[in-house]
Amino acid sequence: MQILYLHSGAHPANVVPPEARLDAQGHSVFLAPVGEPVPVRALSDVGAVIIESDNGDAFDACRELRRLSDIPILMIGGQAKDEVHTITALTVGADDFVARPVSDREIDARLRAIRRRVRSTGSCTLTCRTHEAGGTPASGTVVIEQSGLSIDPTTRSVSLDGDPVLLTTTETGLLLALAARRGVPQSRDSLLRQAWGHDYLGRSRIVDNAVQRLRSKIDTPKWHHVHSVRGYGYVLR
After folding, report:
1. Are 115 and 152 members of one domain?
2. In 3D, which of 216, 176, 167, 209 has the Cα closest to residue 194?
3. SS3 content of the chain, % helix, strand, coil (to 5)
4. Is 162 helix (H, G, I), strand (E, B) or coil?
5. Which of 4, 5, 29, 164 could form a disulfide with 46 if both were Cys (CB 3.0 to 4.6 A apart)?
6. Residue 23 phi, psi (nearest 5)
7. pTM across the whole model
8. Which domain holds residue 184?
9. Is 132 domain-assigned?
């Protein structure tokens, strides 16, 4: 896999540089410093981004990357077992967060897990239409169309009243999970498992934060698509 690696500075002389460590895992690495303009052209050539830093520049870089693209992002920080850093990373658009020390094999495994989740949600097939649209969808067809909201799971594209909506990878996965069982309440743990993976089970605030971001992008004064189910989770209707 080709990886864009945003780092906070030079590594100590006795530490093997990240590009060498990841090369050993079969990846090709392009290095760039955190805090400088995001190299947008590079995004079309890479399969994932790693952001490694202990300061706010990392979160700013992640937020900017997510604004530009839905590319998978893994953040690596120095705050071991710090829930605030984990939640902040996921809130600004990271798909996963891990604290140092972390082995090269774990980084490799997490990157591959993110890619699997992206492929899985991207290839998800929905066969539902709202009653307003009428008709019966053909087998293997799309799409959910609901009160101006349209989702194409094949292309992972979402539009609202005909205008494109830019969602993060996890926001798209969350919306697809809700849409796959539209009208059926789903627990927070179920949504965590579908959109983030088993590593995040029990962290319900992550779902709540993502739903809040999702609502800000797809809700209108007239239509509210994602509804809370008190003490349980959420439902799309």
Report:
1. no
2. 176
3. 40, 20, 40
4. coil
5. 4
6. -60, -35
7. 0.54
8. 144-236
9. no
Q: What is the pLDDT of residue 16?
A: 59
* Total length of the chain: 237
Does residue 117 have a pLDDT over 80?
no
Q: What percent of the chain has pLDDT over 70?
A: 76
pLDDT digit string (tens) for 143-165?
A: 678 788 888 777 778 888 888 88
Nearest alpha carbon to residue 218 among 133, 157, 132: 157
Distance, CA of 174 to CA of 193 (rounded, Å): 10
Identify whether residues 157 and 191 lie together within a single domain: yes
CATH number at residue 205: 1.10.10.10
Contact (CB, 8 A) for 33 and 96: no
CATH number at residue 26: 3.40.50.2300
Judge whether 133 lies within some domain.
Answer: no
| Alpha carbon distance 189, 193 (integer Å) | 6
Contact 126, 179 (CB under 8 A): yes
N-term to C-term CA, the chain: 38
Helices marked H in the chain:
18-23, 40-43, 56-68, 83-91, 104-122, 169-180, 188-195, 204-218
Q: At what angle do helices 204-218 and 169-180 cross, to 10 degrees?
A: 90
